[in-house]
Amino acid sequence: MPGVQGRVTLVTGAGRGIGRATAELLTSRGARVMAVARSKNELKTLGLDYVAADLGTPDGCAFAVKQTRERLGPVSILVCNHGIGSAHERVIWEQPPEVWQETLRINLDGPYYLSQMVVKDMIEQGYGRCVFTSSTAGEKAEYAGSAYTSAKHGLLGLMRAISRDAGPHGVTSNAVLPGWVRTSMAEKSAGAEAEKRGITLDEVWKERAALYPPGRVATPEEVAHVIAFLSSEESSGVSGEAITVALGGLV
User: Fold this and answer.
1) Which segments of the protein form a coiled coil according to its record (predicted)?
2) pTM over 0.85, yes/no
3) 190 in a domain, yes or no?
């Protein structure tokens, strides 16, 4: 089966968590992966081609795409996974404007810039896959998370717009919506919640696990496998879809 064999793939947020698991999985399946994140130290340990860049700016996105084209070739697969969480957010009437601006810049503006740049490559090839990591917060608002919730909702709109614009040219565009996954980003929110409520970190994760029928949270690898399918040639019949990866839970 062709899958992703030989396809030039740009994976963002690849230094850790879901992005790292995805970069490793796609590489194991024959994709030519460029791993992108802000932390050069994390990327170095992957053993893959990498670019350290700020993907919340047009220049940072352009640099990552330029490096990928020059070193690997035109992009066929974009896995847009980078982002910041909501642990530092407050209820909307107390939310600092700079928190809103930073969250939207990284979580929504960056994916827009990257998509605008790489979809051109895909159209020229007559083939492409765009996969975005949203969140269950992309469909259901979380408490004290107006910026994160808005950005993740917006990401679904961007994904669907691309599916309409680029669909006639052999390009699909989809999103995954993970629930709680024990990544470093989620650890920050768990730590903030534990401190606020005066409970332990393990107690927070026990409560989160109880939200899902299996009594646990999803792993980065489980999300990565769904991303890998949506990145593959076999997913050609799926576009404009938001797929929840939350073990049957509601959040």
Assistant:
1) none
2) yes
3) yes
